[in-house]
Design brief:
Structural Genomics Hypothetical 15.5 Kd Protein In mrcA-pckA Intergenic Region, Chain A, single chain, Alpha-Beta Plaits, 3 domains, elongated, alpha+beta
């Protein structure tokens, strides 16, 4: 059965669908010896000879889902042109070749999700509103007024965890907006000294040691897929309502 080429590549675990599209348009994919650069191209994985960057796709492999507790000052990519440590250094013994989904900044530590399931990776990257939670250690202690200000400006929920000369806070975002928070903390005189992601969507880091990885259970994978599907539908519905409201407002303006 013929399918879109990027879907075949993603299902085979070679790359996410978005990355597969880039591979196609950059001329790195061939079908039966012919270079294919059109995104609408279709192929049959059971009969066609498909190569990506010169390597033959042998069909879909078993999907693997991992959580890595990334140490701080490690690049959240498979390699780094500057020679810094990358997550590849911590994936020895992994059951399959996997890729990180989303990003985790260089100085932050904690939960990084990796998989060879291109379909799920693509859905995660395109779905808005998935919550992620960090533990943040700041210089000094935030006042109630400062917490309220930060919550308003960064659209985050901030809860005190441990008081001290340098206090810890649990910060939950509905979008990837950590960098503005880091900047705002610095502007208030409370720069972030440590940031550790402990939850992404329905996945929790738990007590996984730094630099180690584990496979997600079947229940965890099922919960993640269910949450992503639900959130995507909710986002799509909200977008439809907003579009309808804009159309109604436009129609009223014309009548006037």
């Amino acid at each position: 059965m013929e399918e879109r080429l990027q879907k075949i590549i993603a299902r085979a675990g070679v790359a996410s669908r978005r990355r597969a599209e880039e591979l196609i348009t950059s001329g790195q994919v061939t079908v039966n010896g012919r270079m294919v650069t059109e995104l609408g191209s279709r192929a049959d994985a059971s009969t066609d000879h498909i190569k990506v960057s010169g390597k033959l796709i042998h069909g879909a492999q078993e999907h693997v889902y991992l959580v890595l507790n990334k140490p701080a000052e490690v690049v959240a990519t498979m390699s780094d042109p500057e020679g810094r440590k990358s997550i590849t250094d911590f994936l020895r013994g992994a059951p399959a070749r996997v890729y990180p989904v989303g990003r985790l900044e260089y100085h932050a530590s904690g939960l990084l999700f990796l998989t060879n399931d291109g379909e799920l990776a693509n859905k995660l990257l395109r779905t808005h509103g998935l919550r992620q939670t960090y533990l943040v250690k700041v210089k000094g202690t935030l006042t109630d007024a400062e917490i309220a200000q930060l919550e308003k400006e960064s659209s985050a929920r901030i809860e005190r965890q441990r008081r001290g000369d340098n206090s810890w806070y649990e910060v939950t975002f509905a979008e990837a907006r950590r960098d503005p928070l880091r900047d705002k903390l610095a502007a208030l005189g409370h720069p972030a000294e440590k940031m550790k992601r402990v939850k992404l969507a329905s996945i929790e880091l738990g007590n996984l040691p730094s630099g180690r990885f584990r496979e997600l259970s079947q229940d965890e994978v099922a919960s993640l897929k269910k949450l992503v599907t639900k959130q995507a539908a909710r986002t799509s519905g909200a977008g439809g309502k907003n579009n309808s409201a804009r159309r109604d407002a436009g129609a009223k303006g014309k009548r006037r």
